[in-house]
Amino acid sequence: MRSDWILDVLTDLKTFARANNMPILAEQLDDSAIVAMAEIAAMKDVKNAQRHDGDTAVGTHLGGAGTS
């Protein structure tokens, strides 16, 4: 499944926010786009590793509470 569409949606939302004098929201949407790109890349890495090795890639989790 193609995941890049979410970046287009975030860009549209950011454009709307800037056009409607919502600079803080626009900045948050920039941050969200960075997170989305990182997660999309991580998913692609896992899929590529599975395709080449047949195993799940290790170390692609982006973190969260209680991770070590």
Automatic annotation (TrEMBL):
Region Disordered, residue ranges: 49-68
Source domain of life: Bacteria
Protein known as: EAL domain-containing protein
Organism, as annotated: Tateyamaria armeniaca
